[in-house]
Amino acid sequence: MMPLLGTVGHVWSASGAMGLVRALRSRAWQRLRFVQFRIDLEAWEPGPPPAAPLEVRKGMDELRRFRERADTPLPVQFFQDEMRGASRPYLGLWQGEVGHISWLFTTGGDGRRLELIRLGLQDVELDGAFTFRTFRGKGLLSAVEREMLRDAKRDGARFAYTHVEEDNIASIKGVLKTGFAPHGTVTFHRLLGMVWTRWQPATPLELDRPIYALGSQ
Fold first, then answer.
1. How many domains, in total, are found in the chain?
2. Rounded to whole angstroms, how far apart are CA atoms 215 and 217?
3. Containing structural domain, residue 96
4. Which of 38, 49, 123, 163 is most buried, by CB atoms within 10 Å?
5. Please, which residues have CB within 8 angstroms of residue 71's CB and are 6 or more apart in sequence?
């Protein structure tokens, strides 16, 4: 009950009454289709760390300080610890200002509310990403993801996954830039509190879509 109440409060603060109505409607019935991306961390090379004016900070202490200083309501992605039990946030900063957040999920305690994938012991998922509009197009998503993958690889993870709604072209470009490759599609259903998903491997026809060619550029 507490995660649901927290979600309602955050959506109300960030989006008002209409946003809350849309959120409640989506919890009653929802069907979404995601592209699942994967990286083999044994073969992945992270490249150099981010350079100024871009910076990546991580940890709950950093996030709490940002939330305490925020003078406007924040999107729900900044409260995944309260809503989904997440514990590993990564913040992307541009010229010292927070412009992006993503969360790293594992098979430990912070992986108990994953909806799109069931992780193996050596798997991680990157989820809960959000970039403020004024900071889009500056490479924050890819820089943050690379830092998350560095940590996951160092911790012994083998595969990393992330999911992007199939019409979110900007985010698809970002994860391809990080080094992710399409692995399949996940269709997500929610009906009156019940949730189920259907995974399908990526077909050659899907992989031939022009957007996926960006991964080789």
1. 1
2. 6
3. 2-216
4. 163
5. none
